[in-house]
Amino acid sequence: MSEVQRFVYGRRRGHKLRQGRLQRLEELLPCLELSLPETPDAPVQPLGLFPPGTREVWLEIGFGAGEHLIAQAKAHPEIGFIGCEPFINGVASLVQHAGEEDLGNIRVYRDDARLLLHRLAPASIGRMFILYPDPWPKTRHHKRRIVGPSTLDRFAAVLADGAELRLATDHADYARWMLRSLTSHRAFRWLAKGTADWRDRPVDWPATRYEAKALRAGRKPFYFRFERVARPASGAGNGADWP
Length: 243
What we know:
The protein is of the alpha/beta class. The protein has a single domain, classed as Rossmann fold (3-Layer(aba) Sandwich). Helix content is 31%, strand content 18%. A 7-stranded mixed sheet has the order 3-2-1-4-5-7-6, sandwiched between helices.
């Protein structure tokens, strides 16, 4: 497995954490934090991170303050959830709410999500969420976008056959970029059958504070659902020889 370079753009820390939240973070994070195996080629088996009986594992990349992840974890106690977020204030918010709700089906990875994507076992993720990622609007920064040519093969590799990839953005250019990138990738099938399927948030898709902020500012979000196409029979059970 080739080494992946770490990139974390933007801030990793915002305002100073209040003492109470900092204390909760220090108490609870060690029980929730996911660390990569020290052996470079050792894959991360997501189901092994959760209690026996966990049906499958879902992954959210860039969970912000964590409200979507918390809502999903409460609604699906039989699912294990991994949230990736390098911004420590967002991690602190998620950890505090997970503790208050007594949620044992959440794990946190607080580094560049691509490092985790390259270590996850093939076909080990049942659903992936990427909601309102930074659009990096300047052309010279497009390579920083989390949805793009450098990441789609990894999304395809870690998603199980039939798994959903859910994306949201309020940035029209990024929405077009997402659609171009994913509809041209052979491992993904767009699930939309009409305009409402990408203009209206599905009922099982909890709202976020960022969505509310976008709507207040007059920006209309786009909601995309893609399905991971089944791998050819020759690659069944592998996931690495066909994206």
